[in-house]
Amino acid sequence: MASISCLSSFSLSNFSAPLPISICSSSSTFLTSQIPCKPTKRSKPKRHHVSKVTCNSNQNTPTPNPEEERPSYNILGKYRRDVLLGIGGLYGASALSNTNPLAMAAAPILQPDLEHCCITDDVPPKGVIEAQVYCCPPRSSSPSIDFKLPKGTPLRVRPPAQFVTDEYLEKYKLALKRMRELPSDDPRRFPTELDFKVHFSWLFFPFHRWYLYFYERILGSLIDDPTFALPYWNWDNPDGGMVIPLIYRDEDSPLYDPRRNPDITPDTLVDLNYGSGKDPSVEQNLGVMYTSVVSGAKRASLFHGKAFFAGKQPELGGGTVELGPHTALHRWTGDPRQPNKEDMGRFYSAGRDPIFYSHHANVDRMWNIWKTIPTGKRRDFKNRDWLETTFFFYDENKNLVSVKVKDSLDSKKMGYVYQDVDIPWLQKRTKPKRTRKAKHLLDSKVTLLVKRPKQLRSKKDREEQEEVLVIDGIEFDGDDDVKFDVYITDEDVEEIGPENTEFAGSFATLGHSHSNMNMDKKIKTSLTLGITDLLEDLDAENDDSILVTLVPRSENVTITIQSIKIEFEKEE
Q: What beta strand segments (E) does 107-201 contain?
């Protein structure tokens, strides 16, 4: 069985703040023991407390922890879905549960208990993949320090992977080689196996930004180059970017991963609408980008995803980029020969592939681009619950650092920017498949008539309120890869693609590979798509109803949907 560190530590600020969705990792760090996990006995909670989960040597005999004198209170109780786990250079907090009583007074950050590791069923059993999975990060001997924005440091410029120089490539390979050669108990040795569960919420972008930030700084320190910056996989750009970058294809390079789709050749075009059953094209890819970042994401809630609050039942819902091109590239790159399409095809294993970090660098770049687009209300959330969310990472000096979302909003202030390249999809407004005349009602098995609460909206109304299509109660098995496309049309959707206006967006996610966990594997979430521009382009602004067509793209997968409706979102 794989060995996973048992740890659950919650940090609340001076109000009812959110917590990161549970983060389960399997980093390549040292193993102190291999014992089953079991929650500690509850003790009376105090105003300041930390939830801790320790491990037992067997199902009945607890392992004593004489140093543990602090109150121990499992605030997730029997509804605990996952515990907090160390990710090599990271600590986070778990709060994904069926009932979550976390609306309480502030709790101080106490040093996590990393004394024990335990067996878990959260990853495929040994034998399914050749390497056993460990995730016991080294214990920090010092208290965490608060992050401070860098001052007086050279600005790092992240280059597009297709344009890097030979000199840069040699530095990158050397840095990664040295990282992998670090001792297993060195916190700078980033994990090779990861299972991020910060998806389906507004934590997706800031968490991954911090993750790459520390990864990048550690790489630079290992080659004594403070200007070193990660390359980004420029998969949104047909000028050499819509293929797997050449630097990741050399089998003798530390940047290579053998667990990639063997059908991908140097000339294979990336498929940003992967799973649609259609051959990819540049036009389709540009259409996906325009819909995901421009027309369908004119509000923070559409781009980032749904809010996640402590003390409330989570309403999971990812943003347009997360559920669109981000997941599509994970699935497209993963190896279909592996049981779960490892490495990129599963969250728990994606971080083994060095291309993961370049992929997410481009995802992070989308955040910067999104805020520069003039149309819509493209401003980050002002909600303190989001801004004060806290993560913990080890830095290049082995310090445990406390970071907050509010310090991640401007990459330039963090010390890095992206090298400019053409962005052809910014002005690539999609075109309707046909000139719209009469309506044909429900002549498709998956077409529904959805009533619009408002029509004849003024230009001012359209600017202040984004009309959104809400597909609620999307439920599926967490082990499954799930994808469906959404169209607003009554025509044959097989003749329509992302390059057409009728394409409203996609829902796509990777399976989580949970097996035999004592929990409900069903995931229930939602999809929200901005459709103001789409309806204008279809000349449908005055219609009292629209036809919404859902096209499932996953095989042998059961997906249920509770409701489809139209709402209007106004910036708070």
A: 117-120, 134-135, 145-146, 156-158, 194-195
Q: How far apart are CA 489 and CA 495, in angstroms?
A: 11
pLDDT digits (tens, 9 = 90+) for 415-449: 999 999 999 999 888 778 654 433 332 234 578 89
Question: Over the stretch 1-11, which tens digit does the pLDDT of each residue have?
Answer: 232 222 222 22
CA 479 and chain centroid, separation: 16
* Parts of the chain with a pLDDT under 50: 1-122, 125-128, 130-132, 135, 192-196, 435-444, 514-519
| Structure-derived torsion over alpha carbons of residues 255, 259, 261, 266, reported in degrees to the nearest 10 | 20
360 labeled part of a ligand binding site: yes
Q: Which of 319, 328, 254 is nearest to 285 (CA)?
A: 328
49 appears as a binding residue in the annotation: no
- Show the tokens assigned to 22: 């549970």
Is 304 labeled as ligand-binding?
no
Q: Does 208 count as an annotated binding residue?
A: yes
Can you name the CATH fold of 430-570? Jelly Rolls (2.60.120)
Peptide bond just before 343 cis, omega within 30 deg: yes
Alpha carbon distances (Å) from 321 to 2, 19, 216, 286, 412 = 32, 22, 22, 13, 21
Domain with CATH 2.60.120 in the chain: 430-570
Query: If DSSP codes are grouped into helix, strand and coil, which group holds residue 205?
Result: helix
What is the rounded distance in angstroms from the CA atom of residue 67 to the CA atom of residue 413? 41
Query: For residue range 245-257, what is the model confidence (pLDDT) as tens digits?
Result: 999 999 999 999 9
CATH topology of domain 1-429: di-copper center containing domain from catechol oxidase (1.10.1280)
